[in-house]
């Protein structure tokens, strides 16, 4: 891995050496530096750790003088409390989760910034959000994976079988990780890709015939982490009727580009996660055709996109936003499951996980998430989101996923 990195650096240096020091090199002529997806060990200490999150949430709650409330709503498999923060008293609920993949770390930091803002700002914009919305945030929904700085959680199939005796003779599911993944060795500490463990039927109980499953099939709520998020979602349904908006914060490959440019994608967006339940492709979930609101998901994405394009006047990187691939059917994701249940849904995919980018661009990428969330919250609170044209979503440029990548590309997961 270090060899590839060294090659990349050598390429940059060699390219520069070709230009005489006195000449004003036309920047557009230089080949862009290559980019590597090869996993490597990177420091992560600038990101908020689990223990730091507890301290920060406590601080935010305190300085908000009653506006932000924090509670522990469940426990990870290794006993870490699953934390939830709530701010606002409005009739519409916006539910936001982050770091279900433990190597995707800008989400918790951005959520802390948003909570701090909503808890302390007396601006009219913050007041409007607090009056019209209830914002519910879970900043680290895979705290065991986060502490290991890896994608999966820390849970063995044997532990699952002991809790679900009906699975004693079943094979482990397809998303159980026991080998190498994204540079992490799971052989001594297996785990699951928790973001394939959801089921659109929130009352589902695991059945032996549903194993090992596959990516286009729903999950099973095997992990304590997804059980907790599901229970929070059900509680919000009971309280608010519908969970108006659900946003899940992720990271993706480090080397994707904006089509037709040499610009790296800062963040990709999506509002589509499952086949439309009113079509033959989505017929497995036809029962959800009445609650599925794809146009509203598009409007929410446009709200985030517009806010970032406006911010690009200050930093062009905020404008490098693309659409995540749309030809997916992932009913085992939180976004897919909750979207079928009637939530407008938004996926944020920030550039580069910790094994590739580490802390590089941390502040800018965290700010990108913050701006995008701010666009959604203000647009939903003001009602402007209802006026946005869903067709604008389809005009967001797609993601160019291949041009400048060095190293393995088969191991990139979002
Ligand atoms: Zn992810």
UniProtKB/TrEMBL annotation:
Necessary cofactors: Zn(2+)
GO biological process: proteolysis
Pfam families linked: Peptidase_M14
Cellular component aspect of the GO annotation: extracellular space
InterPro entries the record matches: Peptidase_M14
GO MF terms held by the record: metallocarboxypeptidase activity; zinc ion binding
Zinc is among the record's keywords: yes
Coiled-coil residue windows: none
Swiss-Prot/TrEMBL keywords: Hydrolase, Metalloprotease, Protease, Signal, Zinc
Signal peptide, first to last residue: 1-23
Annotated stretches, region: Disordered: 390-414
Annotated ranges, domain Peptidase M14: 46-414
Entry's family note: Belongs to the peptidase M14 family.
Cross-referenced PANTHER family: PROTEASE FAMILY M14 CARBOXYPEPTIDASE A,B (PTHR11705), SLL0236 PROTEIN (PTHR11705:SF143)
Protein name: Peptidase M14
Species name: Saccharopolyspora rhizosphaerae
């Amino acid at each position: 891995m270090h060899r590839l990195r060294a090659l990349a650096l050598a390429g940059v240096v060699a390219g520069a050496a070709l230009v005489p020091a006195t000449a004003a090199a036309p920047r557009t002529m230089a080949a862009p530096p290559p980019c590597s997806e090869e996993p490597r060990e990177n420091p992560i200490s600038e990101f908020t750790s689990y223990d730091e999150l507890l301290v920060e949430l406590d601080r935010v709650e305190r300085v908000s003088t009653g506006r932000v409330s924090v509670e522990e709503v469940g426990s990870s498999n290794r006993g870490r409390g699953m934390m939830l923060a709530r701010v606002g008293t409005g009739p519409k609920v916006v539910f936001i989760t982050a770091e279900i993949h433990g190597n995707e770390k800008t989400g918790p930091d951005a959520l802390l910034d948003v909570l701090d803002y909503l808890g302390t700002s007396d601006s009219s914009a913050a007041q409007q959000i607090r009056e019209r919305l209830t914002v519910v945030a879970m900043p680290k929904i895979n705290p065991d994976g986060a502490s290991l700085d890896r994608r999966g959680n820390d849970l063995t199939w044997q532990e699952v079988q002991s809790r679900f005796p009906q699975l004693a003779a079943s094979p482990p599911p397809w998303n159980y990780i026991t080998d190498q993944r994204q540079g992490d060795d799971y052989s001594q500490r297996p785990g699951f890709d928790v973001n394939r463990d959801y089921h659109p039927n929130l009352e589902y109980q695991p059945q032996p015939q549903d194993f090992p499953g596959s990516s286009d099939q729903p999950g099973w709520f095997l992990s304590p982490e997804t059980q907790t998020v599901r229970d929070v979602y059900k509680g919000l349904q009971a309280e608010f009727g519908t969970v108006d908006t659900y946003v899940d914060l992720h990271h993706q490959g480090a080397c994707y580009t904006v089509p037709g440019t040499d610009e790296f994608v800062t963040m990709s967006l999506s509002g589509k996660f499952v086949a439309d339940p009113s079509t033959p492709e989505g017929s497995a979930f036809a029962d959800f055709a009445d609650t599925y609101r794809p146009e509203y998901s598009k409007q929410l994405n446009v709200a985030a996109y517009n806010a970032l394009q406006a911010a690009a006047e200050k930093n062009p990187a905020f404008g490098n936003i693309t659409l995540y691939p749309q030809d997916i059917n992932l009913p085992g994701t939180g976004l897919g499951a909750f979207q079928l249940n009637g939530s407008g849904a938004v996926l944020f995919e920030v550039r580069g996980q910790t094994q590739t980018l580490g802390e590089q661009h941390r502040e800018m990428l965290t700010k990108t998430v913050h701006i995008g969330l701010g666009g959604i919250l203000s647009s939903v609170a003001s009602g402007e989101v209802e006026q946005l044209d869903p067709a604008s979503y389809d005009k967001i440029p797609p993601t160019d996923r291949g041009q400048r990548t060095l190293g393995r590309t088969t191991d990139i997961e979002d």
